[in-house]
Design goal:
two-stranded antiparallel ribbon, about 180 residues
């Protein structure tokens, strides 16, 4: 069962919501732009995470005057203002807002596991050959929470309690 935006707010699953009236949707909560980053190194991904090494990133600055940024076609890592505390009987998915994909911009993210607490982020791909202009706190994606048919042990990986989508500051540190 998908939880309504009202239910997500009343259960306090999402934190740091900028404006409940503008972000609460019938089927979820809109997520807003906090930071944009680009990758500055390669990542290393293996089967058992013994050699895993996250890619390094650097922030892309907003224009101070306009509080906006023009992004050219390419891939970006975005951090949302909102953080989550997913109950042990729920999971979440992130979907792009329709105004983004209608403008040639996609959002992709993995499953947000039951028990995950911390920052939210996603991959943003600008496909529009003319780019896109994003303002600080722009609504980019919608978080949808689904209830599981049982309670599970929950997420306990390296990204738990991280404060950014790169996840390098969670409870556990990645192997180097």
């Amino acid at each position: 069962m998908i939880l309504s935006g009202l239910e997500v707010v009343s259960r306090q699953i999402v934190h740091n919501i900028r404006h409940i009236g503008q972000q609460q949707q019938p089927c979820g909560i809109d997520l807003t732009l906090r930071r944009i980053s680009k990758w500055t190194s390669a990542a290393y991904i293996d089967f058992d995470n013994t050699k895993r090494k996250a890619a390094k990133t650097s922030s892309v600055a907003l224009d101070i005057t306009s509080q906006a940024i023009t992004l050219q076609p390419g891939a970006y890592l975005i951090d949302f203002n909102e953080t989550v505390q997913i109950p042990l009987n729920c999971m979440a998915s992130i979907f792009p807002r329709s105004s983004l994909w209608r403008s040639g911009v996609g959002i992709a993210a993995g499953v947000v596991d039951a028990g995950y607490e911390g920052a939210m982020g996603a991959l943003m791909e600008v496909k529009n050959p003319h780019g896109v202009v994003l303002c600080q706190n722009a609504k980019l994606a919608q978080l949808v929470i689904e209830e599981l048919n049982t309670t599970v042990d929950g997420y306990s990986g390296i990204y738990q309690s991280s404060t950014s989508s790169s996840g390098l500051d969670g409870k556990k540190q990645p192997e180097v």
